[in-house]
Amino acid sequence: MTDELKTIALSVRDFALPVPRTGSIDAQSGYGSSTLEGQEIHIQVQQKRAKLFSDYEAEVKMSHEFKRGGFCFQIGGRMDGLFSQGRPKIEEIKTTLNLKELLRKLSTPPQNHPYCLQLKTYGYFYWLQHKVLPELTFHLVSTRNHESEDLEIKLDIADYEEWLEHRLDELVEEAQISEVRAERRKEIAKDFPFPFENPRPGQLELIQEIEIGMENRNQLLLQAPTGLGKTVGVLYPALKEALARGQNVIYATPKNSQHVAAENAVTQFRKSGSKLKSLTVTAKSKICFKNEPLCNPEYCEYAKGYYSKVYENDLKKILNRKQKLTTQVFREIGEEYEVCPFELQLEAAQDADTIICDYNYVFSQSTFLEKIQPMPVDQEGKPNLVVDEVHNLPSRAMDYYSPALSSQSLEKIREDVQKLPSQFRSQAEELLDGCIQVIISSRPGSSKEERNHPSPSPNAFQKPQKISLSPELFIEQDLRLRQFLSYYLDSQLEIQAKDAVLRLCFYWAEFTSALDIATNPENKEFFVTYHPHATGGTIKITCCDASDQLKSCYKEYEQVVAFSATVKPFEYYAKLSGLKLDRLKTAEFQSPFSKSNRKMMIIPQISTKYSDRERSYPKVAEVVRRISSLKSGNYFVFFPSFFFMEKVLEVFQAPPGFTILKQEREMKSRQVETVLDHLRLGDVPTLVFAVQGGVFSEGVDYPGKMLIGAFVVGPPLPNFDLEREEMRKYYDEAFGSGFDYAYTYPAMAKAVQAAGRVIRSETDRGIIILIDQRFINGSYSQSMPTDWFEKSPLELVSQSILKEITDFWQSSETH
Ligand code: SF4
Predict the structure, then answer these.
(1) Most buried among 102, 194, 339, 532, using CB within 10 Å?
(2) Has this prediction a pTM greater than 0.85?
(3) Cα dihedral: 101, 104, 105, 111 (round 10)
């Protein structure tokens, strides 16, 4: 009989939900999963119980099947603990920051909080199996001070079965919606037209490469240049394969500004008749209606009664009717129904065929995507993952695990602490002082006496040093901060944007939470450094290889397609991106544009090495002046650093009629737009002095006459500082190529990106001039696209630079 039914496996947590949904968004809503700290307390309690009670058993499996409406719901979970002597007793352990509040919620009739329903569900399953009604108890533990309370609840079989009836009806409805979704996806996949009449040159090969790779279950790492139509070219096969299995695609980008390309691709698919649904995820800090995203019903009216409001107004249905879900849609619905727009994204995500989001949601806060897994009906496997601009992934992932604590930053918070209401001010200041003391006490060379009474002046030494850190002091301080935070939030105070107490607590907590992994001597990819300065010091954790963490993220996906215009050498990016080398397929695609549209040159006669820089400033200035004088238009000069740029600017003489613009260190997006508008207008020939790896050299297009040339001055090698040198040592040991991994490859990714700004369409014409002798060196040139030269980068070296460029411009005019 079961064979004819569709089986759906659900966890007790996903099953035991109130009907109708009630409650607000807060830490005790019961809708989220437990924190890491909560899990540790669980284990401690279970171990204690096991020692004390011989009849105690932890993590007892319990499951039951319910058949309804053509489906078989297999509900399974693990009870935290079972005492079997005498009348059996089931115990669930729950942890919370606010013990009293959770106790109040769980005791309030009709006791249909998700936690109560979970416990009752275990009790009911036990009763079905053993025909004995067990005792049901909560053991509630405070994460603040480990105090605990026990609460017994009653299982009334008739009441439970009444809820069960409603819940099973609801599940049948959810399963039918999931069936329709899977069917819709499979239908789209059967007839999923390519959105253009003819694929662009190279685009077809790209699609075929991905299709074959997915068939062979390879992970794909692809280098695809601009102009290939790579977003459509990658998304098309990835979507088709996922939809055919009733699944969807997660499209991850390093910056929000790169979401547009993916949204446009989905729009193209829609235009060609495919009824695809897409969702673009906006970060909580950007979409939140309040000054600070403090998600609890006392502070935020959009959190208050959120689950009830979503249920009563059937907002899921409203969202499911929309094809394109963007920030604006969530904000409008959020305003209208007074519900949190960020959480609404989660409600809508299950139905989206493409979810476009920042790397964070895939590689850092992967719980976000876990929350949006739809009910698995008629689906096979898992979603597919597309990683755009993957050359950014290694460093972004390292940053996730590389927090720092600085006494300077704490001093900045102090200015706002002093503005706090008087009842909080002195305690907050004391805590802040305590934080600074903890930092200073980590200073290397501090004697025990100094550690107990640290002074801010770093007498013992002036240079940054590698240190070994013991986490205890940081954790103790974290506990103090948490206690204060809880007292602070319990007050009636209106929290303002950038609240000082929140900033202080979060800043400390972020660092403390990384200590466990960073101070484990087995994790050689982590090290800690101390940087002294006048007000104390900065402690930095550096992760120089986050590939292990990334590897576990890929497990959530069926197929992985990662691509960029600069992922060479492949081995470097594959290893540091955590891709599986034994399953890896790499491919490079050539630019579809005619090589005759660009003039590419290396000028190795100038060295921009640190030791030669003084001499190189006037030479670089002269080369740029002479070459740009040959043709009026817009050029970028991309430098390895702001310092280098300023030095060349000091001696630079602009060709007659040219305007000079320059990139500022901290440029607001409005200022960036002003520069772009100026280039777009194109009425004055302009040289823009900028840096590689900056806002003007990556992720921005300069079509047509907006840009006719780029000078790339030297590969922008990272500074030879303590951290980079430590990274070099690690890479040497781990991969046998310390210098290349730490310096050469990251620099070349920036240089190639900068060079790639010039030719963005088939009508673009322009020059690309690479200035430095290292560009002809094999370890640097192996990062260059294959279509830059035939056999050797020496082919790009000219003995008559000005003549060749003049000839190029003349020949372009005749085209
Ligand atoms: S609106 Fe902001 S504060 Fe309120 S629940 Fe949403 S994210 Fe949290």
Answers:
(1) 339
(2) yes
(3) 160
